[in-house]
Amino acid sequence: MLGLDPDKKTVLYAPTWRGNKGSARFDAEQLEKDIDSLTKLNANVVFQAHHIMLRHIKDVDYGSIIVPPPSVVTNELLAVVDLLISDYSSIFFDFLATGKPIVHYLYDYDAYAEERGLLLDKSELPGPIVTTSDELVAEVNHLTADMYTPDEKYRRAQAKFAPHDDGHASDRTIRWFLQEDTSETNLIETRKRPSIIFWGGRLDKSKKTRDFLESVRIAAEAGDKDVTLFVAHSVKSNEAAMEQIRKLGLSVSVVARNDYEMAMTTAERHARNPEEASEVAPQSQRPTPFWKRLTSAFRRTQDADEGLDSLLSEMYKREYRRVFGDSQFDELVMFPGASHFWKKLAEHARR
């Protein structure tokens, strides 16, 4: 299907997208330069783009680079790959179990870290880090020239992120489920303490925010409840608030919601903004633009018609589940300056 040369190593370049989900982007010009460099490798070079970035690179000329059809499953593709090139994508976690080389191509590290943030420090990445296409080609050539042996940094990453990916997970599951063998099962007791969530939302720079975060600290130090703080991702630009949050330490679970993201159906997304819809809903499925109706209705009466209210309630319920899954809380403390959106979302938080 891919036409791979069995006498050559197979290199996969699988970058992720840039920007935010509602305004995703990718530097097509940079990609074309990188592809031009990668064609110099004496290898089967495969390019697998994240589906969100596809429309931003539709005019890219891939030359001799192999682009798999949509029917190819990424995890199955990884099984035939000898070396993975990625950037900030989580795909390297899936590849770690193979023990094969990984190169992290971070040509825009500072810009990406500033815009989207990072969960791992560069020192935790398992493979070498390169920042230019010349360095990339040189590193790939080096790692594919001889038999690869994972170094200590790679082994640490395997132990931390994929300790059970040893090919025997199904066997352990069968022995636990059918033979009640718990020797390799980590049983976690259900938490018995009550839970409380501090519903911060888009915290401002006022004294209300300082007092609110101080109440989070006091609750955490009391130690009699599981404490969670819920804030908007935009709080990262509020340095005073961030300083207080950092001081909370690991005793508080902090959940940040990416601003302006909402789990919506295609029809709902079209209603909100037709340009953001990934596919156009049939006319018969498009609801009346409820965002405009909501704004005007609530401003006039602080209420909405029954159909609209039901639609919105389902949206908020789905958005809450997207962020928290099935988790709910015994207590909720609302930030005094919370907007209508955050208050509606909070309606689904209590047990």
User: Could you give the order of the helices and strands?
Assistant: EEEHEHEHEHEHHHEHEHEHHHEH
Question: What CATH architecture of the largest domain would you give?
Answer: 3-Layer(aba) Sandwich
Radius of gyration: 24 Å
Roughly what fraction of the amino acids lie in strands? 5-15%
Helix content estimate: 25-40%
The CATH superfamily name of the largest domain is CDP-glycerol glycerophosphotransferase, C-terminal domain
Major sheet: size, sense and barrel closure? 5 strands, parallel
Low-confidence stretches: 276-281, 298-304
Characterization of this structure:
This protein is α/β, with parallel strands linked by helices. It folds into two domains: about 10-170, CDP-glycerol glycerophosphotransferase, C-terminal domain (Rossmann fold), CATH 3.40.50; about 195-260 and about 305-345, Rossmann fold (3-Layer(aba) Sandwich). It has helices at about 30-40, 75-80, 90-95, 110-115, 135-145, 150-160, 170-180, 205-220, 240-245, 265-270, 290-300, 305-325, 340-345, and strands at about 10-15, 20, 25, 45, 85, 100-105, 130, 195-200, 225-230, 250-255, 330-335. A five-stranded parallel sheet has the order 4-1-5-6-7. Strands 10-9-8-11 form a four-stranded parallel sheet, with helices on both faces. A two-stranded antiparallel sheet has the order 2-3. Helix 3 (about 90-95) links the parallel strand 5 (about 85) and strand 6.
